[in-house]
Design goal:
The complex is a heterodimer of chains A (about 375) and B (about 120).
Chain A: H1 7-28, H2 34-53, H3 57-67, H4 75-86, H5 93-103, H6 109-116, H7 120-136, H8 149-168, H9 178-194, H10 199-212, H11 215-218, H12 238-252, H13 259-272, H14 281-294, H15 298-312, H16 314-321, H17 328-340, H18 344-357, H19 361-374
Chain B: E1 3-11, H1 18-37, E2 41-46, E3 54-59, E4 62-67, E5 75-84, H2 88-102, E6 105-110
Antiparallel strand pairs in B: 1-5, 1-6, 2-5, 3-4
Helix pairs in contact in B: 1-2
Classes of the chains: A mainly alpha (about 375), B alpha+beta (about 120).
Chain lengths: ~375, ~120
């Protein structure tokens, strides 16, 4: 991949390689190093395509570095180059994130559209323009200069977080896509290895581990969603919690808090509580206040409302929801607070609207279950 | 190899003291020599102020000549360099050095290629 800056060519070559593998591996057996096989096959296919496609000087120039390729190319190195290419500063922030999600995370356009709260056509156009720019400006896969590592890593971190989130609560269909959450954690760990001095990279790994620790407790036997207050905490993965908290402690020593570190700290407070009732909501509220001063995102404001209502009561929580766009998350919280205040009819209305807004089947089932529980005659 | 235009983005009304101007000239000259010795320099030209421009305008009854510039803008191209380098990151490396030498923002535009 590092020898080509034309994404379409790479995609086609990789598809050829997989098709070839599908044709030959079942009878011939899986080769000892499947990934290396795929990469070699893809390179061969790309050369063939280039030879067939052009006689121009530009395409011939493409071939030379490939033919002179150093042996022993590390596949992991290629992957990091790809991540950092997608994070090139010459691309807009939105392009960087969309490209990485598409080509590193393998998300579909629909899944990316959901993360951006945008229309799929917008995302398709964005990807097309980004690819055009990469080609026209000749953006290649070389590693950034040491001075410029940090900015590139920040973008890559945002993307990895997006990938994990899509796996944690997918756009449509299944409750969780564990291949994405695993990929998110794997990429986060790779980035930390690449940039061990970057506190936010460490913070992100800590955050993802602490969230991931609850995986087993989050879904019950029927595939329904179990919210945090009702989770069986004995099913939390203590090893992941220990590791996450250890990484967080390392972060705290540097006194350079950032959004991922603060979110990890919030999750660590949850992880410390033996039961839901033991949760130190005051500390969580304080951490959200800190988070909002450096990262005033709507998602953080929304999550803070829960903590606020635990500390200061549901009425204050309702007030804090004002001005937030009414996605299903906000509506679900509103419904909860209304229920606590005995305003059942309004709670029912909010829940009904909430369940209509999510396409995640398990989430919708959960919300519809709540609707049934809150019904005026129920 | 791909070629890029590095444009020196100059704020309107920019004035340099003679001493500052001397420093910029010296730094730009040194950078030009560096670019040439590394084989990336194609061409460069400092430009006069927009007020010394003339515009050829296309009108309904043919071409009309007018006092320039074609648009009053907050910034204008004060000069440019064309370089021939391996990729955008190489171009950006020289653009950063150009920006340091001139004290100006630099826009990097790739040349259009045909038949690629």
């Amino acid at each position: 991949m590092r020898t080509f800056h034309d994404f379409d060519l790479v995609e086609e070559a990789v598809q050829d390689a997989f098709a070839s593998a599908a044709a030959t591996w079942p009878s011939g057996g899986v080769p000892p190093s499947p990934q290396a096989w795929i990469v070699t096959a893809a390179k061969r296919s790309a050369i063939d395509r280039l030879r067939r496609a052009a006689t121009s000087r530009r395409h011939a120039a493409c071939l030379e570095p490939l033919l002179a390729a150093a042996p022993g190319d590390s596949l992991l190195d290629d992957e990091l180059r790809l991540i950092l290419l997608c994070a090139h500063p010459s691309l807009s922030t939105e392009q960087q994130i969309a490209l990485t999600l598409r080509f590193v995370g393998g998300l579909t356009v629909l899944e990316i559209a959901r993360l951006f709260r945008a229309r799929p056509a917008t995302i398709s156009q964005r990807l097309a323009r980004a690819k055009t720019k990469i080609r026209e400006a000749t953006i290649t896969m070389r590693l950034p200069e040491p001075d410029h590592w940090a900015d590139r890593i920040d973008v890559a971190l945002a993307v990895v977080y997006g990938i994990y989130n899509e796996g944690y609560l997918p756009t449509t269909g299944a409750l969780v896509r564990s291949e994405l959450t695993r990929e998110g954690i794997r990429l986060a760990r790779r980035l930390l290895k690449l940039a061990p001095q970057h506190n936010e990279a460490r913070g992100l790994v800590a955050l993802l581990l602490l969230i991931d620790a609850r995986f087993a407790a989050r879904v019950d036997g029927d595939g329904s969603l179990i919210p945090l207050p009702q989770q069986d905490r004995t099913r939390w993965d203590r090893q992941l919690i220990t590791e996450g908290q250890g990484l967080l402690r390392q972060c705290l020593r540097h006194h350079r808090p950032g959004p991922y570190q603060l979110q990890a700290a919030i999750q660590a407070v949850h992880s410390d509580a033996a039961t839901d009732a033991d949760t130190d909501w005051t500390q969580i509220l304080r951490l959200y206040d800190d988070l909002l001063t450096i990262h005033p995102a709507e998602s953080a404001r929304t999550a803070r409302v829960v903590a606020l209502s635990k500390v200061h009561g549901p009425a204050e929580g309702l007030d804090a929801l004002d001005g937030l766009p009414e996605d299903h998350y906000v509506l679900a919280i509103r419904a909860d607070l209304l229920t606590q205040l005995g305003r059942h009819a309004e709670a029912l209305e909010a829940l009904t609207r909430a369940s209509a807004q999510t396409e995640n089947t398990a989430e919708r089932a959960h919300l519809e279950g709540k609707v049934a529980a809150v019904s005026p005659d129920g | 190899m791909p070629q890029y235009l590095l444009s020196n983005v100059t704020p309107s009304g920019r004035r340099l003291e003679p001493g500052q101007l001397q420093t910029v000239i010296a730094d730009v000259t040194a950078l030009t020599q560096q670019m040439q010795s590394e084989g990336v320099w194609v061409f460069a030209m400092p430009l006069t102020q927009p007020t010394s421009a003339t515009v050829v305008r296309r009108g309904p009854s043919g071409v009309v000549l007018a006092d320039g510039p074609f648009a009053e803008t907050k910034e204008y191209v004060g000069g440019f360099t064309v370089i021939d380098v391996s990729d955008l990151d190489a171009a950006l490396h020289w653009a950063r050095l150009t920006s340091e030498a001139t004290g100006l923002d630099v826009e990097v535009r790739p040349a259009m290629t045909f038949g690629g």
